[in-house]
């Protein structure tokens, strides 16, 4: 049984990129310019717009558990991939992670990103196997875990004291 049904209308060709907060009260949606519009799910009214950095949107990750942050990945021919996390209330980026455009290892790789359950941290995987953990309130890197393989899925434990990492190919 569906407790709540929300129908999104009026968004050209990118409905697959709509990401809802955990309470299904808001959703973030990328327009053709890469701007993320946060709308009220109840009536589709615009709550805020997170301005794109001028790059093309590659992936739309969505809201942190508490709805305070929103994450997306952009692609720019000069800078490569840029992982952006905004504070939804202030509309300001708090974390920006860039990966170099001239690195051939970036081909067909979308980094994993995961918010911690308490929305304090963001874990990001890199093509080189490095996992970096950021504190979102300060935007600072707090831990770098070197590795030898790429991961496309990260999951924090409920207590934020462990991080599970996996790959689609099960290796």
In short, what is this structure?
The chain has 171 residues and is an all-beta fold.
Keywords:
14 strands, 44% strand, 4-stranded antiparallel β-sheet, 171 residues, mainly beta
Explain this structure to me?
The chain is mainly β and 171 residues long. 0% of the residues lie in helices and 44% in strands. A hairpin with a 4-residue loop joins β7 (80-87) and β8 (92-99). The chain starts with 18 loop residues before the first strand and ends in a 5-residue tail after the last strand.
Please give the largest β-sheet: 4 strands, antiparallel
Shape, per Cα inertia axes: globular
What is the helix tally?
0
Radius of gyration: 16 Å
> What class, by secondary structure content?
mainly beta
Overall helicity: under 10%
The neighbouring-strand order within the major sheet is 1-2-3-4
Stretches with pLDDT under 50, minimum 5 residues: 104-108
Please give the alpha-carbon distance between the first and last residues. 37 Å
Element order, helices and strands?
A: EEEEEEEEEEEEEE
Kindly report the average pLDDT value.
79
Describe how the helices and strands are arranged.
Layout: E1 19-20, E2 26-30, E3 36-40, E4 46-50, E5 56-63, E6 69-76, E7 80-87, E8 92-99, E9 113-115, E10 121-125, E11 131-135, E12 140-145, E13 153-156, E14 163-166
Antiparallel strand pairs: 1-2, 2-3, 3-4, 5-6, 6-7, 7-8, 9-10, 10-11, 11-12, 13-14
């Amino acid at each position: 049984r569906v407790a709540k049904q929300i129908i999104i209308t009026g968004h050209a060709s990118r409905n697959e990129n709509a990401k809802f907060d955990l309470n299904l009260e808001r959703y973030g949606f990328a327009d053709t310019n890469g701007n993320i519009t946060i709308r009220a799910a109840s009536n589709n009214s615009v709550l805020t717009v997170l301005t794109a950095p001028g790059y093309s949107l590659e992936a739309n990750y969505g809201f942190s558990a508490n709805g305070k942050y929103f994450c997306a990945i952009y692609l720019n021919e000069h800078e490569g991939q840029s992982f952006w996390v905004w504070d939804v209330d202030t509309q300001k980026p708090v974390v920006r992670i860039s990966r170099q455009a001239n690195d051939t290892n970036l081909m067909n790789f979308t980094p994993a990103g995961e918010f911690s359950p308490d929305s304090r941290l963001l874990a990001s995987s890199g093509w080189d196997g490095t996992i970096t953990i950021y504190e979102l309130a300060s935007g600072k890197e707090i831990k770098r875990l070197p590795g030898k393989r790429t991961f496309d899925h990260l999951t924090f434990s409920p207590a934020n004291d462990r991080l599970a990492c996996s790959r689609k190919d099960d290796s």
